């Protein structure tokens, strides 16, 4: 130990920060592309059904944005895989027997499906039949969902591990049933909650783009149709997400009670009904919540459906097994607060639609623009709540985070972290700027799609094209 700093603790903290930084960047792109792929499938289906060129224009407009977001998601995801072998090699060794095959299934199913049909989706319009092109769009949308399925199964198993066996050397190996591993207790709740979050993220982004153009005086039917579709999604899905989130929270209380205690700010146990703390300042050292604003017994009512039900607090958890309350307390409130704002936006849009003022409500449009990034913020806050709440474990109850890291010195981890920050800020900063530039232009009639596909592959020269009437 030098200068009062434990080098092992410093290396662990830096490795966690590096993974948190890269996965946060990565998470926002799949959260957008999952919902956007389904939105594109809906737009193409409506075009095929109605024959209205407006839906085709919107499809081509968002297809360009999808292609960039999808590529950024793939690139940012590749980096994360390498970190399992650099910063977290012990975790890979201990849990690789379970984690490895699940991640391989994601590649063999979702990635191959997406890669096989993405080119047809992006460049096949006019080159293949309408039915085949629509099938390709559907396959890409299905592929994004399958990708979420496997990745969330991996993450859920790390939260609620089941179906494993412990080898004599301490490694975690799959038991006789892979179904017990894949469909672990928290997986269905996490899958529903996360996929709905992706749809809401996309709806709010689409709604913000449409509202932006409406505020700038656009009267074309494209912006109006985008805004109408996005607000329908917010109005219908946001309340469903609140219900799904509540069910997910009850499941978490059953399997990871310490996480819920930290989310709720319950440092102390309550024998006759626990309050719901709306706000406060967590003090982990003193194990108390300062300046608390609470609703008496409301937490017991929500979590136990009985206002007088007892709820245990972190005083029942060993100090070295407690997650950090301050981070969880605020990340959870950011996520929940934004969820209720999304539902409020949807309700406001229903009121404006009923009054016939959906396209002539500037304050509604301003709120929709302000809420544009809220889906991305909410999914990051939800991820922080999920992952920080699992601490001090990587595999809950079986493998701690401190035991999972590679024996790499802190300076080496710090160097790679700085490199990631610089490269990501440059590369993805430009990518996000380009996405915003695409969104700043409204969709128009006869909207063009992505750039043309290459007319030849490397090393193959196409034959000269015969032109009618050319000289021999």
From TrEMBL:
Domain of life: Bacteria
Places the protein is found: Cell inner membrane; Cell membrane
Record's bilayer topology term: Multi-pass membrane protein
Signal peptide residue numbers: none
Chief place of localization: membrane
Pfam families associated with the record: Cyt_bd_oxida_I
Entry keyword set: Cell membrane, Electron transport, Heme, Iron, Membrane, Metal-binding, Transmembrane, Transmembrane helix, Transport
PANTHER family: CYTOCHROME BD MENAQUINOL OXIDASE SUBUNIT I-RELATED (PTHR30365:SF14), CYTOCHROME D UBIQUINOL OXIDASE (PTHR30365)
Family per record: Belongs to the cytochrome ubiquinol oxidase subunit 1 family.
This protein's name: Cytochrome ubiquinol oxidase subunit I
Organism whose genome encodes this protein: Novosphingobium cyanobacteriorum
Organism classification: Bacteria, Pseudomonadati, Pseudomonadota, Alphaproteobacteria, Sphingomonadales
């Amino acid at each position: 130990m030098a200068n009062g700093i434990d080098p092992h603790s410093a290396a662990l903290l830096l490795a966690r920060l590096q993974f948190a930084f890269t996965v946060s960047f990565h998470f926002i792109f799949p959260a957008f592309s999952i919902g956007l792929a389904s939105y594109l499938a809906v737009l193409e289906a409506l075009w095929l059904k109605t024959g209205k060129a407006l839906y085709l224009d919107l499809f081509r407009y968002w297809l360009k944005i999808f292609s960039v977001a999808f590529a950024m998601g793939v690139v940012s995801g590749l980096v994360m895989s390498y970190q399992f072998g650099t910063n977290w090699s012990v975790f890979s060794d201990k849990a690789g027997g379970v984690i490895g095959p699940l991640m391989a299934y994601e590649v063999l199913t979702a990635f191959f499906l997406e890669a096989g049909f993405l080119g047809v989706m992006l460049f096949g319009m006019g080159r293949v039949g309408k039915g085949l092109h629509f099938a390709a769009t559907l396959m890409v949308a299905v592929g994004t969902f399958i990708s979420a399925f496997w990745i969330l199964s991996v993450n859920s198993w790390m939260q609620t591990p089941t179906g494993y066996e412990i080898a004599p050397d301490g490694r975690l190996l799959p038991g006789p049933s892979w179904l017990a591993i894949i469909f672990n207790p928290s997986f269905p709740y996490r899958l529903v909650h996360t996929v709905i979050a992706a749809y809401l993220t996309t709806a709010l982004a689409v709604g913000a783009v449409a509202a932006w153009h409406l505020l700038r005086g656009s009267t074309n039917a494209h912006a109006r149709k985008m805004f109408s579709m996005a607000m329908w999604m917010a109005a219908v899905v946001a309340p469903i997400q609140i219900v799904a989130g509540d069910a997910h929270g009850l499941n978490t209380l059953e399997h990871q009670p310490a996480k819920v205690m930290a989310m709720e700010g319950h440092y102390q146990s309550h024998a006759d009904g626990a309050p719901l703390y709306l706000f406060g300042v967590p003090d982990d050292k003193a194990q108390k919540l300062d300046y608390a604003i609470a609703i008496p017994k409301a937490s017991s009512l929500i979590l136990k459906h009985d206002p007088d039900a007892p709820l245990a607090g972190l005083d029942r958890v060993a100090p070295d097994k407690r997650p950090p309350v301050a981070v969880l307390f605020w990340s959870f409130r950011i996520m929940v607060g934004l969820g209720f704002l999304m539902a409020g936006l949807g309700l406001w849009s229903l009121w404006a639609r009923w009054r016939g003022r959906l396209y002539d409500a500037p304050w509604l449009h301003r709120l929709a623009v302000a809420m544009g990034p809220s889906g991305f913020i909410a999914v990051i806050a939800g991820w922080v709540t999920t992952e920080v709440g699992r601490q001090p474990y990587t595999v809950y109850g079986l493998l701690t985070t401190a035991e999972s890291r590679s024996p790499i010195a802190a300076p080496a981890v710090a160097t790679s972290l700085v490199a990631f920050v610089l490269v990501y800020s440059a590369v993805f900063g430009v990518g996000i700027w380009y996405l915003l530039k695409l969104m700043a232009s409204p969709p128009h009639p006869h909207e063009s799609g992505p750039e043309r596909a290459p007319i030849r592959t490397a090393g193959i020269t196409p034959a000269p094209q015969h032109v009618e009437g050319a000289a021999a």
